[in-house]
What does this fold into?
Amino acid sequence: MPRLCRVATINGSASADRSASADRSASADRSASADRSASGGPGRRAVIAAIPVAVASAAVLGSSGCTSPASSAPTLQFFTSHQAAVVTDATARIAPGPSDDPAEAGHPGAREADVTGYIDTMLGALSVLDASETSGSQAAGTPVPVIFAGGPWSNRYTSGPDLMASFIPLDPVARIAWRQRLTGWRQQYASGIATLDQLAGGDFTRASPADQDKILASPQASTFLALLFEHTIEGMYSNPEYGGNRGLAGWKDISYPGDIQPRGYTSEEVEGSEGPDPVDETPVVADVLKFLGAL
It folds into this structure.
């Protein structure tokens, strides 16, 4: 079985953020897809699914053979190009793809799913909130922050427009809550990225994969890593309207068909077995759980 590149940590400080992000309209798809396993044998997603959400601990499963190639420059809403590069490398250590580890051939990771784009879009929603308050939240043509996707369905399994791509304006209370939340996350990312650079001697992206793993597993980075881990999973498996899961990479990797409204699932699909659970049959998962004290 291939060695796994995985940096995973969950601590108490991330619980509030985790509960907050669970309020987003894509939370059902995130939860459903994160629990689904990849077909064709145990894979990396089994390790992600096996890590308890509330465990206050950290684990590192790294591979010195991973690489960190440069990605094409996207249009950024919040990050600088360097910050985006750091986040891309860091999230690729949490969920590596074939360009990060040859053992992951056929399994897209954070880089392929554009997790950085998801995070940047989410943090950029604060600028949209600012703009809408300046022009008036009810003014025609005012941009709506990418926070709550519309509906009731996309056009992935039906004709017509993607209704989920039309985001819902926030009410006054939600605007206050999300302004506070996004402001806090922006500060955490700015500080966390600076910490990773400092621990790497100036530039996290120039550190070797093995050194990047050590940096991410260090006590100085633990709080930021908890947030980054959460957002990596969201960016891998959330609805693509939120900016991640590019090309449905995350869903395809775990054989999750995604939202299929308005048809929905048949009773047979809901009740039928998907086959053996790789989480139960993967020795490395048991080792991770024992390390985390979850057994």
User: Anything to note?
Assistant: The two ends are 23 Å apart (CA to CA). Residues 1-71 have pLDDT under 50 and may be disordered. Residues 6-292 form one domain.
